[in-house]
Design a protein that fits this description.
The chain is of the alpha/beta class and about 250 residues long. It has helices at about 30-35, 35-40, 45-50, 50-60, 65-75, 90-100, 115-125, 160-175, 195-205, 210-215, and strands spanning about 15, 80-85, 105-110, 130-135, 145-155, 175-185, 230-235, 240-250. Bound molecules: S-adenosylmethionine.
Amino acid sequence: MHGKAPGATPSAGTCLTAGLVAREGSGVPHYLATHYWWAYIHPRAVKFFERQWLVNLILWGNYRSLSEAALADLGERLPGRTLQVACVYGDLTCRLSERASAGGGTLDVIDVLPIQLQNLRRKLPAAAPVRLLRMDSTRLDVPDARYDRALVFFLLHEQPDPERERTLGELMRVVRPGGTIVIVDYAMPRWWHPLRYLWRPVLARIEPFALDLWQHEIASWLPAGWPLRQIGKQSYFGGLYQKVVVTRADD
Ligand SMILES: C[S@@+](CC[C@H](N)C(=O)[O-])C[C@H]1O[C@@H](n2cnc3c(N)ncnc32)[C@H](O)[C@@H]1O
């Protein structure tokens, strides 16, 4: 079931705290290069999309409320180690890093694209307790149970089935027993929502794997073999968005 991305990322993560080391263009997953070059890879794209109002527009005005929803489950003050899987445009990571700072904790952000990590570095205050690591979410070069909590904001809908499944497998592995994983992404809007009919063809055309999340529960991609204490789901904006919070069982 698990496919292997051609030219997949080297297993070792590259820490960008001291500058950009990884070679641009190498190890970019096939789905990203094929379907999302216009959003994340091209330097002009990064410049263009790094506007909060624009990301908010793409999310139908829900960027702030979805960010709030994600942050609420992680906590006001974040001691220990927090992981964010994949960069996002806008101020979400800065706000997450403020919470890590307030709790005396640290934040690691991983992304497979150096240009995205560079862009995030520019947004963060120099003293932020944040490490930016070049890694592929499907193969994190991180020991088991390393993190207390993790956030994944609108990554899963971009990934084909095997990569999505592997990303969730890696999250379950690297978050400690008792730790929490917060996932925010698309879901199927309710029958009365106009976007259920208007947005479907748009997503089908420009985000070819997104409709998977309309058809299946995120829980269905969670790997077997990791006991859960709890899994909760909340819907937003007439069901077009969802938050899934997974808590690993204690040992
Ligand atoms: C989180 S998603 C979409 C976020 C949302 N649309 C936004 O920017 O506000 C986009 C990010 O995921 C990253 N990404 C995609 N596949 C990845 C993978 N396999 N491993 C790590 N990062 C990945 C991309 O490089 C990009 O920075």
